[in-house]
Design a protein that fits this description.
Blueprint lengths: L12 H5 L2 H10 L1 H20 L10 H20 L7 E2 L16 H11 L7 E2 L4 E2 L4 H11 L3 E5 L2 H13 L3 E5 L5 E2 L3 E2 H8 L2 E5 L7 H7 L4 E7 L15 H10 L4 E4 L19 H6 L4 E5 L10 E5 L1 H8 L4 H4 L3 H13 L6 H4 L1 H6 L3 H16 L5 E11 L9 E11 L5 H9 L5 E2 L1 E3 L2 E5 L7 H15 L1
Parallel strand pairs: 1-15, 5-8, 5-9, 9-10, 10-11
Antiparallel strand pairs: 2-3, 4-12, 6-7, 11-12, 13-14, 14-17, 16-17
Helix pairs in contact: 2-3, 2-4, 3-4, 5-14, 6-14, 7-8, 17-19
Length: 471
């Protein structure tokens, strides 16, 4: 019987690093990271020996070095695993803010990879050989699709609103209906954004009813603009009244002040052709008389996170000259993706096959049910302590887009049997090689299958590997 490993038998750091086991780790992770992890493991080993704890498989110097190597390799693999990773979205919320919103079209992904490889003409005009404007790569497409005279881009729609207000209405008043003083996300509140933009909010009307005369009475010498704001995450029903965009535009024009129309999620096409509820398009907003519109690129548009500002050329030029714009501008990767997404909208008849988010949103419930049945069959093979069924459910569009509208869908519903837990199962799914994110409701884990049409085979294959090895 071998003697227990002794504290004075621990090899030195230099001795360990010179072994073949650690040479591979040094090559993969670098000396500094390996050294730090090794010292931590040696400290832990010393504590175990001092407490007279038996170290598994450690009776010789070679065996302790092998144990140290395994532990260091595991520690470094965990440390270097990306924290930002792909997941399967089975929450039932398609444009899920916490899960990255819209998946990109393949053409956008290819363009992002291409410009990431090295230098590109981000702000270089290849025709003149002189400095160019980065928004030129997308402006012509935005104008073509919206009818705007000019356009510019920033990193999200909150930035678009902030920059527009600061450029047009700094130290002056902006008139907004009380029924449109929205709060979305964690801290995006219109009054707060206006304060940070340097302009003064001039409320008019009431929460549920605002008339044209309310806007007229609010206009004064310090009025810089009228503003219409999309109520992205709520609707007011019942005894209500709002002013049509065309009437607001006429009023603004009669007082020589601009109308700013924040469209929120924004869309470039009539969504009803895909079986979705109607949403006013960017082109319609400009046709209605808005001087400036702002909207997102990563929601209904199905592209990268960005904010799009479009409208009158003189106002866009004013916005572009604002020094704050530099802090909000898009990088080459986002611009490359946005350009490709916009091009797809030039042929709307193929959009549903080219833009993944639109494909997900327009899927028929009958198709989703077939997906759910296949997923149920795969799960039944591994979840012996759970009851797995298929049930109709309602998907949400998400990210403030059409907030009160839901879409018919189907989900795999997992109920826990005696001795099991849906919370533990949800945690187990989050720990898979590609995490699965569902939602827990009615004491069950719901896996809405609307968003996994093309990923189903990959997901089932992962079940057969990851779940089988853990059961």
């Amino acid at each position: 019987m071998s003697k227990p490993f002794q504290l004075n038998q621990l090899p030195s750091v230099d001795r360990v690093l010179q072994t073949s086991l650690f040479s591979e780790l040094l090559q993969q992770y670098g000396r500094e990271s390996v050294l730090s992890a090794l010292r931590a493991q040696l400290d832990l080993t010393r504590q175990q020996l001092q407490a007279n704890e038996q170290i598994a498989d450690a009776s010789t110097e070679d065996s302790i070095i092998e144990t140290l190597s395994n532990n260091v390799a595991l520690s470094l693999a965990t440390e270097f695993t990306p924290s930002l990773k792909r997941v399967f979205n089975l929450t039932g919320t398609i444009l899920h803010t916490n899960l990255g919103r819209a998946p990109y079209p393949q053409s956008a992904i290819d363009a992002m990879v291409d410009v990431s490889r090295g230098a590109c003409n981000l702000e270089y005009n290849l025709h003149t050989g002189k400095r160019g404007r980065r928004d030129d790569h997308v402006e012509k497409w935005i104008c073509k699709l919206t009818g705007a005279e000019a356009a510019t881009t920033v990193n999200n729609n909150a930035a678009a609103v902030l920059l527009t207000l600061n450029s047009i209405a700094n130290r002056r008043n902006v008139i907004v209906s009380r029924g449109e003083l929205i709060e979305i996300g964690g801290s995006f509140r219109i009054p707060a954004i206006m304060e940070k933009a340097g302009c003064k909010l001039r409320e008019t009307g009431t929460t549920n009813r605002t008339h044209l005369k309310d806007y007229k009475e609010a206009i004064g010498k310090k009025t810089a603009a009228l503003m219409k704001i999309h109520t992205s995450n709520f609707e007011i029903n019942g005894f209500t009244k709002s002013v049509a965009a065309t009437d607001l535009a006429a009023l603004a024009q009669s007082h020589s002040i601009p109308l700013i129309d924040d469209l929120g999620s924004g869309t470039l096409v009539d969504l009803t052709q895909f079986g979705l509820p109607y949403e006013r398009t960017a082109k319609e907003a400009l046709t209605d008389g808005a001087d400036i519109i702002t909207f997102s690129g990563d929601k209904l548009l199905g592209g990268p996170q960005c904010g799009i500002i479009a409208g009158r050329k003189d106002l866009i030029e004013l916005i572009d000259k604002n020094p704050i714009k530099r802090a909000m501008r898009l990088d080459k990767v986002a611009l490359a993706a946005l350009a490709e997404v916009l091009k797809l909208y030039a042929t709307p008849e193929t959009l549903v096959t080219q833009v993944p988010s639109l494909a997900m949103l327009s899927r028929k419930a009958a198709e989703i049910k077939i997906t759910a049945i296949k997923l149920q069959s795969a799960l039944n093979s591994h979840l012996t302590n759970y009851q797995v069924s298929v049930s109709p459910c309602q998907s949400q569009i998400g990210s403030g887009a059409l907030p009160t509208r839901t879409l018919d869908s189907y989900a795999v519903v997992v109920h826990a049997s005696s001795g099991s837990s849906v919370n533990k199962l949800a945690a187990r799914f989050r720990d898979l090689s590609v995490p699965i994110i569902g939602r827990i409701a009615q004491e069950a884990l719901w896996l809405d299958c609307r968003a996994i049409e093309h990923e189903l085979d990959e997901l089932i294959k992962m079940f057969n590997v990851d779940l089988a090895s853990s059961t």
